[in-house]
Write a structure and sequence with these properties.
Number of domains: 1
Largest sheet: 6 strands, antiparallel
Number of helices: 4
Distance between the termini: 29 Å
Order of helices and strands: EHHHEEHEEE
CATH class: Alpha Beta
Oligomer: single chain
Radius of gyration: 18 Å
Strand content: 25-35%
CATH topology: Alpha-Beta Plaits
Structural class: alpha+beta
Number of strands: 6
Shape: elongated
Length: 164
């Protein structure tokens, strides 16, 4: 039986996928996530009254910075040159939450999904870190890939693969 795991060789040892024969192409990925917060945290963020500073701005910077370090954080992830990374955090009054969305773009030989997901994940953790003195009961949830385009595996949109 042939090994189907790309990060494991035939002998069961970890390996980076060989991308040496792949051509660079435009790749895009979008990801999202939520941090459910208490009314007290919501009010502190909206009034910019969190002791550690502006929560949404710091979380955005942290997420962008983390995306640039994805290959250092995720074992066997290739370092890629990120052409663009946008990350935005919004307060959602109805859900009493911080909504986080990222879009990453690269022209490279491998995908940018992990960078988009890392950006959202670290932004969410930053919201938690900055607000934990107010209330530790926050919930980070729903971190997921919204879409990706480019590459051999085809496009992906919210749970549905769309072959090219």
């Amino acid at each position: 039986m042939e090994n189907k795991f790309t990060h494991i060789d035939a002998g069961g040892h970890p390996q980076m996928v060989d991308v040496s024969d792949k051509k660079k192409s435009l790749r895009k990925a979008r990801a999202e996530g939520w941090v459910l917060i208490s009314r007290q945290i919501y009010e502190a963020i909206i009034s910019n009254n969190v002791a550690k500073g502006n929560v949404l701005t710091v979380a955005e910077i942290a997420g962008i910075q983390a995306a640039k370090k994805t290959c250092d954080l995720i074992p066997l992830c290739h370092p890629i040159s990120i052409d663009s990374l946008r990350l935005k955090c919004f307060l959602d009054a109805e859900k009493q939450a911080v909504y986080i969305e990222s879009e990453a773009i690269a022209t490279d030989v491998t995908g940018i999904e992990m960078e988009a997901l890392t950006a959202v994940s670290v932004a969410a953790l930053t919201v938690y870190d900055m607000c934990k003195a107010i209330d530790k009961g926050m919930v980070i949830q729903g971190i997921r890939l919204l879409s990706k385009s480019g590459g051999k595996s085809g496009d992906y949109v919210l749970g549905e693969r769309q072959d090219q």
